[in-house]
Amino acid sequence: MSDQPSAPVPGLPDRPVVTAGIVVFDGVTLLDVIGPHTAFALAGMNVQLVAETLTPISTDTSIRLPPDVTIERCPQDLDIVCVPGGSVGDAMLDIKLRDFLRARAATARYVTSVCSGALILAAAGLLDGYRAATHWASRDLLAALGVEVSTKRVCMDRNRITGGGITAGIDFGLAVVGEVLGREVAEFVQLGMEYNPKPPFNTGSPETAGADLTALFTTVTKPIFQPMADATAQVLARRVAR
After folding, report:
1. Within 10 Å of residue 53's Cβ, how many Cβ atoms?
2. How many CB atoms lie within 10 A of CB 69?
3. Which domains does the chain have, with CATH numbers?
4. How far apart are CA 38 and CA 49, in angstroms?
5. Which of these is catalytic: 74, 82, 115, 155?
6. Radius of gyration over every alpha carbon of the chain, rounded to an integer in angstroms
7. H or E stretch including 154?
8. DSSP 194
9. How many beta carbons lie within 10 A of that of residue 209, not counting itself?
10. CB-side neighbour CA atoms (13 Å) of 190
């Protein structure tokens, strides 16, 4: 990490330059990317979207994301590696992506994820011996991969920082900023984002949504989560084969 300070903000301490690489892949959840990216960027970090090619990435919406850099040209000295979630089945089995994550994780200050991105880290062996959070609907898959599952919205275990599902990426991003650059900077960023959530409904978790709505969600989204379950089974089978 460079010791060169970023542009000063009156009243806030000088901040070192921090480089964050957010890995993107086809089927990524847009908000998983945008939440952390916004917090990191407003904190003055150098944020890059990393993908296998520079071809625009399809997301879970009609919006496509243009990567900034390829895996081959991604800086070696990332301070933060961040893996968002989404339709992660193919990414979990992508040998090139897993090798990249292992290589950068070996030198990064923080290895992080949002939502089901934790399954990608787990498939790469990067959550072995760690506690991690993920989307509530993929907690059983994360546990199957041998990870101690946290139900917290943001889980910090040494240099692993993981967030829960989708909107938790905003909390996660602010928590990372606070950890890396200090509380004053994180609070400044939160104010700038006007992050003061007051959801209109109290159904944001299975505990508050109730059994019927949770069961309906699980049934409707089974085609989305089934490839993740299949990929988890393949990862486990390969580990046994070794």
Report:
1. 10
2. 14
3. 19-197+205-241 (3.40.50.880)
4. 12
5. 115
6. 17
7. strand 154-157
8. T
9. 17
10. 19
Q: How far, in Å, CA of 56 to CA of 53, rounded?
A: 8
In tens digits, the chain (242 residues) has pLDDT values of: 344 445 556 666 677 889 999 999 999 999 999 999 999 999 999 999 999 999 999 999 999 999 999 999 999 999 999 999 999 999 999 999 999 999 999 999 999 999 999 999 999 999 999 999 999 999 999 999 999 999 999 999 999 999 999 999 999 999 999 999 999 999 999 999 999 999 999 999 999 999 999 999 999 999 999 999 999 999 999 998 87
Residue with tokens 């086809």: 26
- Amino acid in position 155: C
> Any catalytic annotation for residue 115?
yes
Compute the residue count for the chain.
242
Q: Give phi and psi for 6, each to the nearest 5.
A: -80, 175
For residue 106, give the amino acid letter. A
Q: Give the separation between CA 190 and CA 212, rounded to whole angstroms.
A: 35
Convert 23-35 into a string of H (helix), E (strand) and C (coil): ECCCCECHHHHHH
| Among the listed residues 70, 72, 132, 119, the one whose alpha carbon sits nearest the alpha carbon of residue 92 | 119
Q: Are 117 and 186 in contact (CB under 8 A)?
A: no
> Both tokens of residue 104?
């950068």
How does DSSP classify residue 218?
H
CB 63 within 8 Å of CB 30:
yes
- As given in the structure block, the two tokens for residue 184 are 């004053």
Rounded Cα–Cα distance for residues 222 and 195 (Å): 31
The answer for residues whose C-beta is within 8 angstroms of residue 64's C-beta and 6 or more apart is: 56, 57, 58
